[in-house]
Design a protein that fits this description.
Number of helices: 0
Strand content: over 45%
Shape: globular
Oligomer: single chain
């Protein structure tokens, strides 16, 4: 059974940095997309950064130049390096994977104080 386990959230001051990790348990064979979404209460979940099946990456306009998605295939892990954090980045960040269907992690809270 596939599971996504996130870590790395927390509280940080504006301008600071955090790195999120998402470890995939189970085989990574067949993964066609993997990355991060975020959600604020009362708002729709939004894409933050994503690896696509073609090997490319998609970023939300609001995080371009500040966030970087990366992966370590040997560790079955995807990372989200978040720099120059802003108060509006405060959200629950969820790891996402598509492998024949959608999988979601439990989410990790990121709070940026201004």
């Amino acid at each position: 059974q596939v599971q996504l386990v996130e870590s790395g959230g927390g509280l940080v001051q504006a301008g600071g940095s955090l790195r999120l990790s998402c470890a995939v348990s189970g085989s990574i064979f067949g993964i066609t997309a993997m990355g991060w979404y975020r959600q604020v209460p009362g708002k729709q979940r939004e894409l933050v950064a994503l690896f696509t099946s073609g090997g490319g990456t998609n970023y939300a306009d609001s995080v371009k130049g500040r966030f970087t998605i990366s992966r370590d295939n040997a560790k079955n892990t995807v990372y989200l390096q978040m720099n120059s954090l802003k108060a509006e980045d405060t959200a629950v960040y969820c790891c996402y994977m598509r492998k024949f269907r959608d999988y979601w992690g439990q989410g990790t809270q990121v709070t940026v104080s201004s």
